[in-house]
Design a protein that fits this description.
Blueprint: E1 23-27, E2 32-37, H1 52-69, E3 74-83, E4 93-103, E5 106-114, E6 120-130
Antiparallel strand pairs: 1-2, 2-4, 3-6, 4-5, 5-6
């Protein structure tokens, strides 16, 4: 299976009409990703609160997208998340992702969802494994 971006990524794909359309900026020199997302009514779990699974999607995307954008083709091998506070519908979420360590085939990554004021809403760590862009 070849790994090709066709614009249909659920989190950031511009062609995915049902996707989240999160926007990201990459600082290749610092190896940091930042972005934002505003959950809408269709993103609810409990009334008025974004579904926790979408928080996991955003955290995973922040970690893996960063790697690809700085030239490290990798996929998620494991993901651990901690939901700290409810993410309210309509509340702007600031997304941050970075690399904790890069040793051979395995890369430890981390990400955080915050309010605009810097309060932590959710955080996660992951292990990503390097792959060939031609296939997994």
């Amino acid at each position: 299976m070849e790994l090709v971006d066709i614009g249909m990524c659920f989190v950031c794909g511009s062609r995915n009409s049902g996707g989240l359309h999160a926007e990201f900026v990459i600082d290749s020199e610092q190896r940091i990703l930042t972005g934002s997302f505003i959950p809408q009514e269709v993103h609810q779990g409990y009334g008025g609160i974004m579904h926790g699974g979408l928080a996991a999607c955003l955290l995973d995307e922040a970690m893996v997208k960063l790697l690809w954008e700085i030239g490290i083709p990798a996929v998620s091998a494991s993901l651990e998340i901690r939901l700290k506070k409810p993410i309210r519908i309509g509340q702007k979420v600031v997304i941050k992702g970075w690399i904790e360590s890069d040793r051979g085939r395995l890369i430890k990554t981390a990400a955080r969802l915050e309010t605009e004021e810097g309060n932590i809403l959710a955080e996660g760590t992951g292990v990503c494994v390097r792959v060939s862009p031609e296939g997994v």
